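Hi F.,

I've been meaning to write this up properly since the lab meeting, where we talked about keeping a consistent format for the predictions we share between groups. The idea is simple: the sequence comes first, exactly as it goes in, then the structure tokens exactly as they come out, then a line or two of notes. No screenshots and no reformatting. I'm using this chain as the first example so we have something concrete to point to.
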Amino acid sequence: MSWDEFLALPDGDRVEFTQGRAVVSPPPTFAHQEICLRLRDALRAGLGTDTIVAVATGWVDAAEQWTRIPDLMVLGRAPADGAVVTEPPLVVVEVLSSNRRSDLVVKAVEYHREGAGQYWVVDPRDQTIDVFVRAPAAWHRLHRMTVETPTAEVSVGEGVGVRRFTLRLPDILR
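Output, unedited:
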């Protein structure tokens, strides 16, 4: 499928575009969305209510003919047109479900290539949250929250805009 054919698809479907392919995802489950909303609320509470958190919003790089719909993103600013994100997010989050390989391998590489500042992986099955930060060639795991180590001090942002807060696994994965 070409990029132009992808752009001509009707609105409303959960479709991503990567490597010349349209990738259709089923709607998320209730449990999956509850985790996303709890994480959104924790981010806003920890970073401030003015924090821009996008849930299930498109991130597009038209020059690369690429688009993904991460489960959650923390943005430096809202999209100018109010539609899709075109600048690299400060944080991209995926909540693992049936497409674990895609989230852990394919999307991780793409998010790094596209310039995301951090990549968080929430795993409801294994009850973990991994926080990866950008390193020159790949992601570097900074924190792993588990049942045994359920909290981490997390910094989000760059330069003078860095905000720190405590992320608690029990607040997200119940």
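Notes:
The chain has one domain: 28-172.
Residues 43 and 51 are 8 Å apart (CA to CA).

If this format works for you, I'll send the rest the same way.

G.
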